[in-house]
Write a structure and sequence with these properties.
heterotrimer; A alpha/beta; B alpha+beta; C mainly alpha; B: alpha+beta; 6-stranded mixed beta sheet; 6-stranded antiparallel beta sheet; 22 helices; 15 strands; 52% helix; C: mainly alpha; Arc Repressor Mutant, subunit A; 3-stranded antiparallel beta sheet; 9% strand
Chain lengths: 236, 782, 174
């Protein structure tokens, strides 16, 4: 491997509780630029919470979140919204497209919110449609798309502003395995082409297999499965 | 951003458009109602102002040196006349010079033998036989009275021109240097209220009425705003996730609401201007308005046109505050905190507000009264809406404790989970119940005031021309002639009451003319004999000023009582209209020891003409009497006892009408609110109920759940609303009407129960839809 | 299925006769196919020759030589290495994984760590297979998918087992 790339996004000792329930107790995770990291763990372990803290959606009770050399958790809500809009992309399991907008408007949304002219934003959106095999679906609304198509639209939206970090939370959770594989394949390929970092929360091993490495969230902390070098399996 | 907001609001698919339409419609109705109320208040003011000149009173005797009159004074005598139950205002005038004041609406004072007449009266004259009406007015028509002199397009007004000599002989005529311009509502000294609404707390009533209409409308708008609220919250959460700043989301939501609000305001203005003409014809005050008077001032228009969108934007902002804080506002579905007990405080505060005044007495001036009571009512009504969720919660807890079947348990838990949403559906109805209760209770209370109901055979057959007034000795002068009629002296004294005023006996010509009218059955002359009193338990009077009557004449009017056997003359009340009882057919008056010659020499206290009761006959008789005895200022025209009591009931009838309008309107709006919230409730229940069905719940149980979910908040809060309604009415009755509250009749209870049942029925009516909308395809994940 | 290492592991619990070892093996790992005596003694001899086990003095009694075997330091090291090192990820690993978990519990070793290490190895292999799918042709993809599905199944079993370790430990120590 080439020279070590820098850490682009990092959580340090994040503690987060919801009411009486502690979700994270001192979770730390450093992700290097260009990496694809799978965040695994049993349900209720706090994986999504960690993702939300890293993305600046939630503010941790204690600890720090750093992105590109800046403290993310102490930024104002307006500043954080800006970061999400320009530097991050999101592909969640469901319920993330705006039903009143067409598919291409949904994809163009981050650009429109950032002030890009409508024509330019839609052109960019349509380019992504082509890359992800969604030609002809631009004018449809989210209710008229299949699950796999909707997730690809979400992926296009996540990539349209050339994000530095793509956050995916169970992106294939509601899809059948064929659609799921297509989405994961497209996602990782697009991310590598753009040099985006991907933080992928999943409990599905086959989805996690698309990542470069995995970490486990257990009991509110982050760990890896092993420190030693893994044995090489018999080549098939 | 704004463009995005517009895009979302207008072309966001069928559901978005439906919501927009409903919201715009509700805002439109609200704005239309608001504009109508404002315009009506304006119109009432303008209309009242036009009564001013008719309320001109004779000037009081000048205390100091007479001010030099630069103008030529006007001889004026203003009186009221009756025709077929309608009031005719009559002004007899004679100008003393070219600069005499001229009544509004006419180019100049009419000369002798001329009159100016209102269009409605002119039409009436043309369509009625002359001896019933036109003969009362000497001369010919010189022109029509313009709008400036008429309170209403239906007003019957006539300005009769006389010569100065004639006027100086008319009893009660006086010279005035200017016509009154103070509206009756501000009438103090120097004007007598003959028409229009006096300073009797009408403004207070109008304020409360406006409140009672506006609050249900606000709730209606709020309910429409909440349609598909969850969906919109979800959509904004998605936008926040991809980086929309809280300010951007607020702006978009504001644009959406503003679009609906502006459309609604346009609809409201449109409705108002289209319906203005029809609305003007509704006699809110007993008289119709000129359509142009039902108008809005520029400030009114600006405030409503600007205020409504602003209010809508604020409402949208409040509804979305959860998601402006965090993009996970919806996905993290934490149960909202249960409503706390402090919610009942505004309601209690409103009741306390009224209660304080019950204990300490109300403020003196009407303006202060408005400041005192209107906030109290406003607090009570908004307090009901605020306390609703807490009461629902309490009801849910009771239900949970007593629930044994799964349906009841599910309903109790769903209610406890989100009591606000459950109450919202029925909030409009609850408010309408409160309003209905208050209106019904106050009406019932008002109607217990001695409703002067004229009964007995004399009530509608006997035309009474009353020349004397019964007043308290030394007390404030009853509204009567400022200057006593000529040849008058006080007569008949009983205790502290004295009869004042009389008229000369009718001439032979008058008697002949009367007898010529077919249908006249008798003429009875009550003669004024000073110093006589009368006690008659049967008539309900004791020590009352008395007149004397010849028994021969009395025999021709059996409805007025009988003479004792063998008597030639009897004592009768000096004023039939002041004794409080109208059925005198069985009364035997005590005998009067007076000779027939002396009887014939006495002046008249009143003249009674017995008719066969048909209206044309009464009008003909009235015409003859008026021409013989011109009605003086402040004296009533010749009228039957029935007409007299009808006149006394006008205020009550006006309030009845107002109450009906308020009840009808608020119930209609409540019905609309319920319909909208039921539709919204259907949509909200689609997903959870279809999931329940999939897991095996039967439709019957789901229906039970819906029924309980709707019934519990409705009944819990309705009970409080009705109770509060009675409480508030009791306090208001004590304060303003000086009466203790009377329970409304059976009709109220029947209607209230019917209303509640109907509301529940409306909810039940959606049950057939339940099967279809909770079908398995609804449970598919989106 | 590594019989020598399994027997060695059983031996680590306590020194035993071959007869006892066979009985325990059949109980826990036999699955209907009892281990032949001959294989047991042959394995034990080999282990003793390699220094992983030591044969005690022969005890005279009925039947063949009843030697008691005990494990040596080298044998313990072997067992430790075997348990802690994940098995190369292949399909049909159930029996090996199962043996390792049970033995680890018997020997009070950190079975959860071993499972984690195995998970890591599996995931690493799955990554390789996934990368193969991305750049390979259709046949490669089919084969890779086959492997991936089996590895996934193993991982699920590992997850389930990891969740039940406490119960298993109780059962094993009865």
């Amino acid at each position: 491997m080439a020279a070590r790339s820098t850490t682009i996004i990092e959580a340090r000792g994040v503690v987060m509780s919801f009411g009486q329930t502690p979700a994270l107790r001192g979770a730390s995770l450093a992700v290097r630029q260009g990496e694809i990291v799978a965040v695994m763990g049993p349900s209720g372990s706090g994986k999504s919470t960690l993702l939300h803290c890293l993305a600046g959606i939630l503010t941790p009770d204690e600890g720090e979140v750093w992105f590109a050399g800046q403290r993310l958790d102490t930024m104002s809500e307006a500043k954080r919204s800006e970061v999400r809009r320009d530097k991050f992309g999101f592909v969640f399991q469901s319920g993330q497209l705006v039903p009143e907008l067409t598919a291409e408007e949904n994809v163009a949304l981050p650009l429109l919110l950032g002030g890009t002219r409508r024509a330019a934003a839609l052109a960019e959106a349509r380019a992504w449609f082509g890359r992800l095999g969604l030609d002809g679906l631009g004018r449809r609304r989210s209710g008229e798309l299949s699950g796999g198509q909707a997730q690809r639209v979400a992926l296009a939206r996540g990539m349209v502003n050339g994000p530095q970090v793509l956050f995916a939370d169970e992106p294939t959770g509601a899809l059948d395995s064929m659609s799921g594989e297509m989405v994961m394949s497209l996602m990782t390929r697009a991310a590598r082409e753009q040099g985006s970092t991907v933080i992928l929360v999943t409990h599905d091993a086959r989805v996690a297999a698309y990542a470069d490495r995995e970490v486990i969230v257990r009991d509110g902390t982050v760990g890896s499965l092993t420190g030693a070098a893994p044995p090489s399996g018999a080549a098939r | 951003m704004i463009r995005l907001g517009l895009r979302l609001a207008v072309s966001g698919g069928r559901e978005a458009v439906v919501r927009l339409v409903i919201l715009a419609a509700s805002v439109g109705i609200g704005v239309g109602l608001l504009l109508t109320v404002v315009a009506a208040v304006n119109a009432v003011g303008v209309q009242n102002d036009r009564y001013a000149w008719l309320d001109t009173a004779a000037p009081a005797a000048p205390a100091g040196p007479v001010t030099a009159t630069s103008r030529d004074p006007l001889w004026a005598l203003i009186s009221t006349d009756l025709f077929n139950g309608q009031t005719i205002y009559r002004a007899d005038v004679a100008a003393t010079g070219p600069a005499s004041p001229v009544p509004p609406g006419i180019p100049r004072d009419p000369g002798p033998g001329q009159y100016y007449i209102s269009p409605a009266l002119s039409a009436l004259l043309r369509s009625t036989p002359a001896d019933e009406l036109a003969d009362r007015y000497p001369g010919h028509q010189a022109g029509l009275i313009g709008q400036a002199g008429l309170p209403s397009p239906d007003s019957l007004v006539i300005v009769v021109g006389r010569s100065v000599a004639q006027m100086s002989h008319l009893p009660g005529a006086a010279k005035v240097t200017s016509l009154n311009t103070t509206s009756p509502s501000g009438c103090g000294n120097g004007c007598e209220i003959r028409g229009g609404l006096g300073p009797s707390g009408v403004d207070l009533v109008l304020s409360v009425v406006a409140l009672a209409l506006l609050l249900p409308v606000l709730i209606f708008i709020g309910t429409a705003t909440r349609l598909s609220a969850a969906r919109r919250e979800q959509r904004f959460a998605a936008m926040r996730l991809v980086g929309a700043a809280p300010g951007q989301v607020s702006l978009i939501a504001a644009v959406e609401s503003a679009v609906a609000a502006v459309a609604g305001a346009a609809i409201g203005f449109g409705l108002f201007f289209v319906l203005r003409i029809s609305l003007a014809a509704i006699p809110f005050t007993g008289q119709a308005f000129f359509p142009a008077e039902l108008s809005l001032s520029l400030p009114d228009i600006l405030v409503v046109a600007a205020g409504v969108p602003v209010a809508a934007v604020v409402a949208a902002r409040l509804a979305l505050r959860r998601v402006t804080i965090s993009p996970l506002g919806v996905t993290r579905r934490t149960t909202p905190a249960p409503p706390r007990a402090w919610r009942v405080l505004p309601l209690l505060a409103g009741l306390a507000d009224l209660g304080i005044f019950v204990v300490h007495g109300k403020p003196a001036s009407p303006a202060l009264q408005i400041l005192a009571f209107v906030p109290g009512f406003a607090l009570i009504m908004t307090g009901l809406v605020i306390a609703g969720p807490w009461l629902t919660m309490a009801g849910a807890r009771v239900l949970a404790r007593r629930a044994s079947r799964p349906g009841a348990l599910i309903a109790a838990r769903r209610l406890a989970d989100d009591p606000r949403a459950a109450f919202r559906a029925v909030s409009g109805l609850v408010l309408a119940l409160f309003i209905f209760t208050v209106a019904a209770a106050l009406l019932a209370t008002q109607n217990t005031k001695p409703p002067f109901v004229a009964d007995g055979p004399a009530a509608n057959n006997v035309l009474v021309d009353q020349f004397s007034n019964v007043t308290e000795v030394g007390g404030p002068a009853a509204p009567g002639p400022a200057a006593p009629r000529s040849g008058v002296h006080a007569f008949g004294s009983g205790g502290n009451q004295v009869a004042v005023g009389s008229a000369p006996a009718p001439s032979a010509t008058v008697l002949t003319r009367l007898r010529q009218i077919s249908g006249i059955q008798g003429i009875v002359e009550f003669r004024a004999d000073p110093g006589l009193t009368l006690t008659s338990p049967a008539a309900g009077i004791s020590g009352f000023p008395a007149a004397v009557v010849s028994c021969a004449q009395l025999a021709s009017a059996p409805g007025l009582g009988r003479c004792p056997a063998g008597a030639a003359a009897a004592r009768v009340p000096a004023s039939l209209t002041d004794i409080g009882q109208t059925d005198l057919a069985e009364v035997t008056w005590p005998a009067a020891g007076i000779t027939a010659r002396r009887l014939d020499s006495l002046p008249l206290a009143s003249l009674e003409v017995t008719t066969n009761g048909s209206q044309p006959v009464i009008e003909q008789a009235r015409t003859v009497l008026e021409n013989a005895y011109p009605t003086g200022t402040g004296s009533p025209p010749p009228q039957t006892l029935g007409e007299d009591t009808t006149h006394g009931n006008t205020a009550r009838n006006a309030y009845q009408q107002l109450a009906d309008v308020v009840i009808l309107t608020s119930l209609t709006i409540a019905g609309c609110t319920l319909a909208v919230s039921v539709a919204g409730g259907l949509a909200d229940r689609k997903r959870p109920f279809s999931l329940l069905r999939l897991t095996g719940a039967r439709l019957g149980m789901l229906r039970r759940v819906i029924a309980l979910e709707s019934a519990v908040p409705l009944l819990a809060v309705a009970a409080v609303a009705i109770g509060t309604g009675f409480g508030a009415s009791a306090m208001y009755a004590t304060l303003e009407m000086h009466l203790s509250l009377v329970a409304p009749g059976a009709a109220y209870f029947v209607l209230t129960s019917a209303g509640i049942v109907l509301a529940l029925g409306l909810i039940l009516a959606t049950f057939p839809l339940l099967r279809r909308i909770t079908g398995p395809e609804t449970a598919r994940s989106e | 299925m590594s019989v020598p290492l399994t027997l060695l592991g059983l031996l680590e619990r306590e020194p035993s006769h071959g007869y006892d070892l066979k009985r325990d093996y059949d109980t826990w790992f036999g699955r209907g196919k009892p281990l032949p005596y001959g294989q047991v003694y042959a394995t034990l001899s080999r282990l003793a020759r390699d220094g992983k086990a030591i044969a005690g003095p022969a005890e005279h009694g009925e039947g063949p030589d009843r030697k008691r075997y005990a494990i040596t330091e080298a044998g313990i090291a072997d067992v430790e290495r075997w348990l802690s090192e994940p098995a190369p990820p292949e399909p049909h690993l159930q029996t090996v994984l199962f043996a390792k978990v049970v033995l680890a519990l018997m020997l009070d070793r950190p079975a959860d760590h071993y499972l984690d290490a195995q998970r890591a190895a599996h995931l690493h292999r799955m990554r390789e297979l996934t990368a193969l799918k991305e750049r390979g042709d259709l046949m490669d993809t089919l084969l890779a998918d086959h492997g991936l599905y089996h590895l996934e199944a193993d991982l699920r079993w590992i997850d389930h087992t990891a969740a039940r370790l406490d119960l298993l430990a109780q059962a094993v120590h009865q």
